[in-house]
Write a structure and sequence with these properties.
Helix content is 29%, strand content 24%. It has one helix at residues 2-26; strands at residues 35-36, 45-46, 56-63, 66-67, 75-76, 81-85. A two-stranded antiparallel sheet has the order 1-2. A two-stranded antiparallel sheet has the order 3-6. A hairpin with a 7-residue loop joins β4 and β5 (75-76).
Length: 87
């Protein structure tokens, strides 16, 4: 009986790990452009371009950190952040 309990524990661990890996591969990457503006909309930076990676952070602020279009009208997420370029 003890051997059966150990076997079930190992089986649960294997199934849990398999499910975690499957979920990781199932979540798609966001290929839609995401934009950030360090100066309130004067200039825009594409932050998720694989050919031109951008270092940035989202600090506490009064606007959205990222946008789905080059305008302040389409924020991604909450609007209590500030986009900051990291040199």
């Amino acid at each position: 009986m003890k051997r059966m309990t150990n076997l079930l524990s190992v089986l649960a661990l294997v199934l849990g790990a398999t499910a975690a890996v499957a979920m990781n591969f199932a979540s798609p990457t966001n290929n839609n452009p995401q934009y950030g503006t360090p100066d309130g909309g004067e200039t825009w930076v594409v932050v998720n371009d694989p050919q031109n990676p951008v270092n940035y952070r989202c600090d506490i602020g009064t606007e959205a950190c990222l946008y789905s279009q080059e305008s302040l009208m389409h924020p991604i997420g909450t609007t209590d952040k500030q986009f900051v370029l990291i040199p």
